[in-house]
Structure formats: structure tokens, C-alpha cells
Amino acid sequence: MKRLLLALAMSVAALLTGPGAARAGATLDAVRARGQLVCGIHTGVAGFALPDSKGVWQGLDVDLCRGLAVALFNDAGKVRFTPLPSSSRFTALASGEIDVLFRTSTETMLRDVTLGLRAITPYFYDGHGFMVRANAQISKASELNGATICLIQGTTNEQVTADYFRSQGLGFSPVLFQRNDQASDALQASRCDAFGTDASQLAAVRSSMPNPEEWKILGERFSKEPYGPYVRRGDDEWYDLVRWYVNAVIQAEESGVTSANAEEVKRTTTNPDTRRLLGVTPELGQSLKLDPDWVVRVVKAVGNYGEMYDRHMGPKTPVGLARGPNELWTRGGLLYALPMR
Q: Are residues 43 and 64 in the same domain?
């Protein structure tokens, strides 16, 4: 029995330390050796990731990628964007094609425990909804019985829609697409009666339509869709770095640190938590193998969370979304940075 237990322990150790096992620090070492972060993003949705008129990617997810590059290299340009459809985004991450996924990806239990990946921490809270023609005389989802509904393949929205209609004893016909623009075109061409996806993406799609006022997003929400970054399972050092980077841009907003005042706050603050955050005392950066002032550099380059949100998603943008659940917890929202100490 003792020999059997010893052999079993040796087999487990071989699996954990063999060539296929991820070792702590492997991703960070590879990124630094390459001199560039490879970030998976959406193929194109306003507010999160969309090329501008000059072909430069813009959006909340894009800025989060750029900010991570600043934390690593002090250079927002040292990032390569890899646009990925919903159906292959997790495969691309698992295979090593990208280093991190910032791509409107809901954190769910099965994704976190069955794909060889880790969901990190939410940075955007959303919910499934439906968009219909404004003159369709439809005010709630139950009135879509028998409707044809555009959906994006490989998303949680497929299951959420099916679950809702089944639970209500209603029928519908799904039409699946790879991209939002394909679903939008089908909706406008009357191939679908409604488009079902997360409300923020519906707002983004509507903002890019020729006549946005002809479309309305129904007020009901049918799911919890917390978006978070994903990394490969088994590399704790990289997981920690991305996790605390996201917390840092949220904490910067909580602490009143902006792109305009970051240097001044660093010089003048007497708040112990803010001094730690901005590297006056170096322990946070040291724990992640980053420079002490990495948060100052990030915020100066891309802003705190609120600045990024307002720039790409807020009421003054074409997407036009109020903060809502993505407001700080101190102002009635769900956004909450874990203590950085």
C-alpha cells in the first residue's frame, strides 16, 4: 500500500511539473521576452472595441489592454490586438494565440472550471435584452412569441434566450451569426423580428445604425452578464497581475486619481492607501514584479476606470449609456475595488 501511494504521488508530481504543465510566471516571462502584449478583443462593437476612421482600435476593452501594456512596458503602444469572434475566443486563449482576453466575455462557472481558463474579476456589469423596431407595438419580451430572433453564436445569449422562452412556454426561431454587424444587417433587412444580446451591445449596435431612432431596446433584463478578463489556468503570477491591474484602475477612480492629477496626488497625498496605490511606498509594485509607480503611469496614459467608461460608453458618446450598475459602489453601483494593501 505504501509503495502504491508513493507511485501515485510521483505520478501526480510528474503531471504537475512535466512539459505540458504551466509554471508560475510563464506568461509574464514570455510577454516580456517578446516585448509586446497580445490582447484578444471583439471583432467590432462600439464602446468596447471598434476601429476609428483611421483604423485605430478604440473602446473600453481596448484601453484596458493598452493600460496593461503600460503597466508592463510603460508604453501603451506595446500591444497587438487580435480581434476574435465569440465562437473561437476561448480556444485562441487556451492555445496561446493571445496572452489575455478582454472581450465582452461573461464570467460563468462552467467557463471558469471546464475550459482550462480562469475568469479574473468583473469590470463591466450587463444583462441580456432584446431590440425591436420602435413601431413594432412590442413593449415586453413575452410579446415576441413565435418571433425570429437574431443571436450571436458561441455566447451566453443563445442559452439565455432559449431558457427564457422555454420557461414562459413560448416559441421562437433563432438565426445565428458570428458578428454583431451581421445580426444588425439581418435585423434591418427584416430577416429577424428582434436581436437578443447584452444591453450594452444592443446600444452599441443601435448607435451605428443609419436611423437609431427607429429601434428600441426593451426595458427587461433576463440575465446577469458580468464581463471580465480571462487568462489561462495554471499561471498564478499572470492571473494575479491582471487581476490587480483591473482592481487598480477601479481604485484609482475611488481615490480621485485621474489622468490630469495623478502626479500631483502622488506628491501630496497623506492617505496611506493612496500612497501605496501610487507607489510612494513600493510594496504593491514589488509584489507583482512591476515598477512602484505603475498605477501612475497607467492612469496618466489611459485614465481611471470612470474616465475610460465616459470616453467610450458614457452619455456624451454615440453609445450613450449611463453608468448604472457600472457606477462605483459609493455612488450606488456595483463597481468595487478589492483593498490594495
A: yes
CATH number at residue 240: 3.40.190.10
Residue 44 lies in a domain: yes
* Residue type (1 letter), 88: S
Which DSSP letter does residue 335 get?
Answer: B
236-254 vs 26-34: helix crossing angle, rounded to 10: 80
DSSP 318-334: SS----GGGSBGGGTSS
Same domain for 112 and 240, yes or no, is yes
**Final residue in a domain of this structure, among 223, 247, 264:** 223
Coil/strand/helix, residue 286: helix
| Count: domains in the chain | 2
Segments in the chain forming alpha helices (H): 2-17, 26-34, 60-73, 89-94, 109-114, 156-167, 180-188, 199-207, 236-254, 262-268, 272-277, 283-287, 294-302, 305-312
C-alpha cell at 188: 434591418
Domain that holds residue 197: 126-223
Domain-located, residue 338? no
| Residue 294 phi, psi (nearest 5) | -60, -35
What is the pTM for the complete model shown?
0.87
In 10 A of CB 11, how many CB atoms? 10
Tell me which DSSP letter residue 163 carries.
H
| 10-residue averages of pLDDT along the chain (341 residues) | 37 37 74 98 95 96 98 98 95 98 96 96 96 94 95 90 94 94 94 95 93 94 95 97 98 98 98 97 96 98 98 94 96 96 93
Question: Domain check: are 251 and 234 in the same one?
Answer: yes
With respect to residue 16, please indicate whether it lies within any of the assigned structural domains: no
Q: Which of 243, 265, 264, 263 is nearest to 254 (CA)?
A: 265
Does 86 reside within a domain? yes
